[in-house]
Design goal:
This protein is α/β, with parallel strands linked by helices. It folds into two domains: 54 residues, Roll (Urease, subunit C, domain 1); 309 residues, Alpha-Beta Barrel (TIM Barrel), CATH 3.20.20.140. Strands 1, 2, 3, 4, 5, 16, 17 and 18 form an eight-stranded mixed beta sheet that branches. Strand 7, helix 2 and strand 8 form a beta-alpha-beta unit. Helix 4 crosses helix 7. The protein is globular and about 65 Å long.
Length: 434
């Protein structure tokens, strides 16, 4: 048994925001003792969480673990170590591996390796089309039986509206979730940065915001037409937020996420040809950044996900246009998101919704995203006041492609429990389980 003692327990799932003790037994939440109540003599491990926040384990619903096929960039062990260090107890990994996760054997490989080597729960997303080529649908039912929880060609958009229509129609019958990378390749073309003043000044071919927005509009209309359920990934533009807002008001079955870099940075970060700030969709302008923040505050945006995309130095330290897209984000997503608390526009409970409760609900992860009795013993303990610097030497990921090195952060996960086992700890008196 394990007792998390005296922390501020913030759990929107139970409507709880109060000081108390969380008891975990056999990998499950066994009890909650409010206020000053004590379990008396306790035969087990005690974690003193006084002055800390005790949250349901955080869930990152958009991660690239690169395993199988690109293990020099990341593998399941290193990726989940980075996840635990960032406060995440569960990660949802995309299908653009090598081979692509379009076959049950690949799905089973990910699940089995995660079970033996992972420091967090790993939930695979299978490819929507074979080889992610956008032409032939995968066998959803077979992949689901192997352990896939959703379907996406993330990294590549589904160019054919007909293929996406068929996928949504098939998925609707089983209530499968489609995760969609919204991009019109005809418009994005050979672009490498947001189409705006910075890219123009640097001589970098631009990607217009319309390349994302037209695809979002198409995806929403197909969800309306089919009645299927679709989730828009990494929203980066003002109109993208507006479209999601309108769709929700119309009762369409659509949800959406953004990533911390889209509400923290703008395309000014690429100045000096900084490839560590190159991603897809690209960093946008200040108006877009502010719209993302508004969408988070008013509930339009459902979740914050890191879009953790590790790349080796070779593919980042090159000319801007040739550089790989993406940044690592598992270890910075929580503190960058906690910056939203400043000024009181986002409450701690809303932050837990964005990083845990709502992702669990969207993905259908039973027992996750809450600390209700009987839920899985996934717990993130956060020190909301600690100030620290994000340094390259501290990164657990195999890759180092982040624009945030040297940033001063406030708030950090100081201990993480996954199914009742300590997978990460910065607390001297708490030792991670072997």
């Amino acid at each position: 048994m394990l007792l998390v003692k005296g922390g501020r327990v913030i759990d929107p799932g139970s409507g709880r925001d109060e000081v108390g003790n969380v008891v975990i037994a056999d990998g499950k939440v066994a009890d909650f003792l409010p206020g000053g109540e004590s379990p008396g003599t306790f035969d087990g491990t005690v974690i003193d969480a006084r002055g800390k926040w005790v949250l349901p384990g955080l869930i990152d619903m958009h991660v690239h673990l690169r395993d199988p096929g690109f293990e020099w960039k990341e593998d399941i062990r290193s990726g989940t170590e980075a996840a635990a260090a960032g406060g995440f107890t569960s990660v949802v990994c995309m299908a653009n591996t090598s081979p692509v996760n379009d076959h049950p054997e690949v799905t089973r490989y990910i699940r089995e390796k995660a079970a033996s080597a992972g420091k967090a729960n790993v939930f695979p997303v299978a490819a929507l089309t074979r080889g992610q080529n956008g032409k032939e649908m995968t066998d959803f039912s077979e992949l689901f039986e192997a352990g896939a929880i959703a379907f996406s060609d993330d990294g590549s958009p589904v160019r054919s509206a007909l293929v996406l229509r068929r996928a949504l129609e098939y998925a609707k019958a089983f209530d499968f979730l489609i995760l969609e990378h919204a991009e019109d390749h005809e418009l994005s073309g050979e672009g490498a940065a947001n189409e705006g003043w910075t890219a123009h000044r640097l001589g970098i071919p631009g990607i217009p915001s319309a390349a994302e927005e037209i695809a979002i509009a198409r995806d929403i209309l197909l969800a309306r037409f089919t009645g299927g359920r679709i989730h828009i990934q990494h929203i980066s533009t003002k109109m993208g937020v507006d479209l999601l807002r309108m769709a929700k008001r119309a009762g369409i079955r659509v949800t959406g996420e953004t990533a911390p870099h889209y509400f923290t940075l703008t395309d000014a970060a690429i100045d000096g040809y900084n490839t560590y700030a190159k991603m897809n969709p690209p960093l946008r302008g200040e108006e877009d950044r502010m719209a993302i923040l508004e969408g988070i505050v008013d509930g339009t945006i459902d979740a914050i996900a890191s879009d953790h995309a590790p790349h080796d130095e070779y593919t980042k330290r090159c000319e801007f246009v040739a550089a790989s897209n993406g940044i690592i984000g598992l270890e910075t997503a929580l503190p960058l998101s906690m910056a939203l608390l400043a000024g009181g526009k986002v409450t701690p409970a809303r932050l837990v919704d964005l990083l845990s409760a709502i992702p669990a609900r969207i993905l259908g992860l039973k027992g996750k995203g809450t600390l209700c009795k009987g839920a899985d013993g996934d717990v993130t303990i956060v020190d909301p006041e600690v100030e620290w610097e994000f340094r390259e030497s501290d990164v657990r990921s195999k890759s180092r492609n982040s624009p945030f090195f040297g940033w001063k952060m406030r708030g950090r996960a100081v201990a993480v429990l996954c199914r009742g086992h300590v997978t990460h700890s910065l607390m001297k008196e708490v030792t991670p389980d072997a």
